[in-house]
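step 4 of 6: structure.
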Amino acid sequence: GQQLNQSPQSMFIQEGEDVSMNCTSSSIFNTWLWYKQDPGEGPVLLIALYKAGELTSNGRLTAQFGITRKDSFLNISASIPSDVGIYFCAGQFSDGGSQGNLIFGKGTKLSVKP
Amino acid sequence: NAGVMQNPRHLVRRRGQEARLRCSPMKGHSHVYWYRQLPEEGLKFMVYLQKENIIDESGMPKERFSAEFPKEGPSILRIQQVVRGDSAAYFCASSPGLGLYGYTFGSGTRLTVV
């Protein structure tokens, strides 16, 4: 099946540092999404990207939809302890037959040291 | 304005028993999606339903798994004769229409097969 390669798998950073993570795919996506999942909870949407080249911010978070439509990155600036969690990228194919089906990466586990 | 409600939050079943997982979509949402998440993995799409119709079940195992979304009441994901490998977190998402606008996840049901 289709896969998203998300990296890094985990990060241990100091409070105040910036964070960057990315996802790549062998297939073209028409939408990229970034989610955060806290323990015992479902994913919560952080940023949605709908156009190639699009750069979108949500507070300290910035994400971009790659020009080739096969990659995306998420940056978190000035990290704080509550940024701890697992971050997932997810994409949706251009194939109209798979509307509503999201393909998820394996996640980046972020730990922040105060 | 309640979000996507899933119950139970935790479910323990012995091998060979049946598991029934319920998902009540957000008010006004008529599209429901089920995903499965194994430990240390991303979510994997299982099935997409609208009221009384299965739209896409390409991610459902061929045997023992079924899903429904009746005209009245919650969507049900049913797993018959559970095995240890079915242990996972099962998430439901709902949306008001086709596409990703308003696509929201519930908090999941954690199934443990003993």
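step 5 of 6: annotate
 - Chain B touches chain A through 28 residues (CB under 8 Å).
 - Chain B is about 0% helix and 50% strand.
step 6 of 6: archive
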